[in-house]
TrEMBL record:
Keywords: Signal. InterPro entries: DUF6777, PASTA_dom. This is PASTA domain-containing protein. Residues 346-391 have a biased composition (Pro residues). The lineage of its organism: Bacteria, Bacillati, Actinomycetota, Actinomycetes, Kitasatosporales. The keyword Nucleotide-binding does not apply. Pfam families: DUF6777, PASTA. Residues 243-308 form the PASTA domain. It comes from Streptomyces cinnabarinus. Residues 308-421 are annotated as: Disordered. Gene3D superfamilies: 3.30.10.20. Residues 1-23 form the signal peptide. Residues 407-421 have a biased composition (Low complexity).
Length: 421
């Protein structure tokens, strides 16, 4: 084949692929604005199950977020943004047996397991316009539909930081399974386009790869104030920290991706990555941006670069196995540490004060209970990541690839998220 003919054939192939991509349909998503009642709720919203807040959505550059990302969610001094006790009494009332059965099926639990499931949920406020698979209650069934929840909506999230229940109406939520970059948002039924909406800044939450003990939130009314909220509590056991204190980026070059993620979240920093798929937990980290020693605010992102093998898949070292990833065109984060880890961060933020206990206090779900004012404690400790290995994995320079095929590096990019609302 002559050079000219080859170029023409290649051009035809590129144009054909581009045409196919343009023809791919967008996924229709229904907008759900803060404070707007659902047309088909599981729970009568006039009974005060939950209250949304006014929160301006934060800008992002990557659609996927891990459920344990520092500052992903917001908190409030209000003691009852979501009345879990009231929801439990409603779902366990024999008069609501059919609703309870449909609600449980949507969340893949049994009706008998509803009380225990609710006890593990934590109320938070969205800080980003967030994609979820929502559910209406129609004809005694939970009818799923993709929706975009406005920042400020009150949710219950599970022990892996995954949205589970919309507080105001009790509707169950599951992970969004589409491509965050290929959506068409419908604003209708009273849900008008809100100020600050930007389709490029919506997020979809993937569960943290292991259960966390507490969530690090940002006070939506006082952005300089961070909140440590034990999982399964409603705010009565909150402690606070300075969200504006600068924290140093730890040295993660030479660590595995899973170890690096643990060290960063332990410092109150988020893990940056982007592109097609995610590195495996065993992929070697060859660089970070910003580099080690840089000073960042709580919740800001550090972009990691990992070494890849000749085949293009991340090179791995002995370490934790990958966890199953939810079916989606956007790949979910992999596990940050080996099974059996205590979940205590490897490098907590520097502090001269005694660190908070790693065991959350008992939960109080009584809606009548008024939360005492939060007490001051050290900066957040994100407990979903394992301690680092005592022996760092070999760096790229000491683990050369096969002769003639030097490894390439792929830089993952992600947003810099401000801790303020």
């Amino acid at each position: 084949m002559t050079r000219g003919l080859f170029v023409r054939v290649l051009l035809v192939c590129v144009l054909a692929l581009s045409a196919c991509d343009r023809a791919a349909p967008l996924l229709t998503v229904k907008a759900v604005a803060a404070g707007v009642p659902s047309l088909a709720p599981f729970f009568d919203e006039s009974n005060g199950l939950g209250r949304d807040a006014r929160v301006r959505s934060r800008d992002v550059r990557a659609g996927l977020q891990r459920g344990d990302t520092p500052g992903l969610y917001g908190g409030s001094r209000q003691p009852t943004i979501c009345d879990v006790g009231k929801l439990e009494r409603f779902l366990t009332d024999p008069a609501n047996e059919r609703k309870a059965a449909a609600w449980a099926r949507a969340l893949e639990i049994t009706t008998e397991g509803i009380p225990a499931y609710l006890d593990r949920l934590t109320p938070v406020l969205l800080r980003h316009d967030t994609l979820v698979k929502n559910h209406d209650y129609k004809k005694e069934k939970a009818v799923p539909f993709d929706s975009l929840l406005q920042a400020g909506i009150a949710l219950l999230v599970d022990a892996q930081g995954q949205p589970a229940v919309k507080c105001s109406c009790g509707n169950p939520l599951r992970p969004f399974e589409g491509d965050t970059s290929r959506i068409s948002v419908e604003f209708e039924d009273g849900n008008e386009k809100w100020k600050g909406y930007d389709r490029a800044s919506v997020v979809s939450v993937r569960p943290a790869s292991r259960k966390v003990e507490r969530l690090a939130l940002v006070d939506v009314e006082e952005p300089a104030r961070g909140i440590n909220r034990p999982v399964g509590t409603a705010g009565e056991d909150d402690t606070v920290f300075d969200a504006e204190r600068r924290r140093a980026v730890p040295d993660v070059v030479g660590a595995t991706f899973g170890q690096a993620a643990g060290r960063l979240t332990g410092q109150g920093l988020a893990v940056g990555y982007a592109g097609e798929g995610l590195p495996s937990d065993g992929a070697l980290v060859t660089g970070s941006n910003p580099a080690a020693g840089a000073q960042l605010a709580f919740g800001e992102y550090v972009t990691l670069t990992v070494a890849e093998s000749r085949s293009g898949s991340p090179r791995t070292t002995p370490g934790p196995p990958d966890l199953p990833v939810p079916s989606s065109s956007a790949t979910a984060p992999s596990s940050p540490g080996p099974p059996g880890s205590s979940g205590t961060p490897s490098e907590p933020p520097p502090s001269s004060e005694e660190p908070p206990s790693s065991t959350p206090p008992p939960s109080s779900k009584d809606p009548a209970t008024t939360s005492p004012p939060p007490t001051s404690t050290p900066p957040p400790t994100i407990t979903s990541a394992p301690p680092p290995s005592t022996t760092a994995p070999p760096t790229t320079s000491s683990d050369p690839p096969p002769p003639g095929t030097p490894p390439s590096t792929t830089t993952s990019t992600a947003p810099t998220s401000s801790a303020t609302t």
